[in-house]
Amino acid sequence: MIEPAEGPAPGPTSNEMAAHRTALADARSHLANERTHLAYLRTALSMMSFGITINRFAIYLLQGKDAEKLLEHENFPMRDAANVGLGMVIIGMVLLLWSLLRYRKTYKQIVEQRFEPSSTSVSLLTLAVVAMGAVSAIWLLLS
Length: 143
Prior knowledge:
This is DUF202 domain-containing protein. With 143 residues, this protein is an all-alpha fold. 79% of the residues lie in helices and 0% in strands. The chain contains four helices and no strands. Helix 1 runs antiparallel to helix 3. The N and C termini lie far apart (102 Å).
């Protein structure tokens, strides 16, 4: 008599496969959260670097040999550029702190499986950038 062939080796159950897919989805969510944080970090570092550059360049121009002549003009733009650079550094630091708080809040929500996107923070950040652009445009027009 011929022995029946053994069936294929048992594989993972559907519950095990679902748990594995859920773990992979959680990992993707955490990695996306980290990428978002790193994008904020790069933006903040760029703002701070550019602010330092503006500040130092303005001070360099004001210390030049022709600085007295330039400072006599009331509309000389470099007089306030050092403060603009300092402001950019401060805004970059605030953005770093905000990004860290946002990252930690999102991390906790992912772990608790109750993520709630924050449209308020996105709106506030966008409005802040628009306001900075408007102030910069007015400053450029007046100088």
